[in-house]
Amino acid sequence: MSRIKSYVDKLFKDIPNSEQKENIKQEIIQNLEDKVLNLMENGKEEEDAINKAIIDFGDIEEIKEELIGKHVNKKSKAGLVLGFSIWGSILIIALVVFMNFYYTPNVIWFIYPTFVVLWWPLSMFFVWLSRKNNKVIK
Amino acid sequence: MISSDIIRGHLDSIILKLIIEKDRYGYEISNEISTRTNNRFQIKEATLYAVFHRLENKELIESYIGDVTHGRKRKYYKITSLGKAYYNEKIKEWQIIKEIINLFLEGSENE
Question: Is residue B6 helix, strand or coil?
Fold first, then answer.
């Protein structure tokens, strides 16, 4: 039976610890053990019964999605990338403006690289926007 | 064993139905599904617990720790009034879906 416990422990390894996670884990271990006992009552060897319970378990991703909320995570990641792109482009533009007025104050050329750099936050903004809308539909 | 998306789409309703009949615990539900379908459909544990978690979050079911059996405490699930209402809505929806699908998939073999 300790194989069941170590199997479930391994499955839940990458899910962040929480009370909910512990509860679900305990419940799953107990019910898998019920299943093994039931299979053994019906004449299966313990090892076969445990193997069957493990094979029948299915895809842990389904529980992960419920526990972590995959969509929320994706959106906040997009927000982070958007913030990074905004700050990054501000710094680059500031540098270009500085170079322009420091070295060649008579020629205004910083507009051109500024337009190029602005594509970066703009594209990230649309990624963020589409994630946000997706979440509303969900 | 059938693993149809149509069944998957109605797992919530199937599990609600079983919990409406009486309070049940996890393995009892997966066992009941296999028995009633003559093993033509078996629910995976991972799916089952994802559904429990979702239904509990939506307050369609509640859980409580039941009597001690075989030296262990079991977690039982119980329907809420919201859960019953949701299930009744799902029945109506299913009637309509069934009629629509039947319009196209049933009784047209001779044509």
Answer: helix
CA A27 to chain centre: 25
Instruction: Give the domain B5-105 fold.
Output: Arc Repressor Mutant, subunit A (1.10.10)
Query: Which ipTM was obtained for this model?
Result: 0.71
Give the tokens for residue B106.
């049933």
* Chain A from 65 to 84: CB within 8 A of any B CB: 65-67
Distance from CA of B11 to the nearest CA of A (A): 13
Instruction: Quote the CA–CA distance of B46 and B24 in Å, as a whole number.
Output: 17
Kindly write down the DSSP assignment for every residue of B19-52, as one continuous string: HHHS-EEHHHHHHHHHHHTTTSS---HHHHHHHH
Confidence of residue B66 (pLDDT cuts 50, 70, 90): confident
Structure tokens at A73: 């995570």
Task: Kindly report the average pLDDT of chain B as a whole number.
Answer: 87
Residues with Cβ within 8 Å of B108's Cβ and at least 6 positions away in sequence, in order, are: none
A63 touches chain B (CB under 8 A): yes
Across the strands, what pairs with B68?
B73
- The domain spans of chain A are 2-67, 70-137
Digit-coded pLDDT (tens) for A3-37: 888 988 888 888 888 888 888 888 888 888 888 98
Whether residue A57 and residue B26 make contact (CB cut-off 8 A), yes or no, is no
Query: Which of B1, B3, B8, B27 best probes binding to A when mutated, by most A CB atoms within 10 angstroms?
Result: B27
Residues B71-91: tens digit of each pLDDT = 677 889 999 999 999 999 999
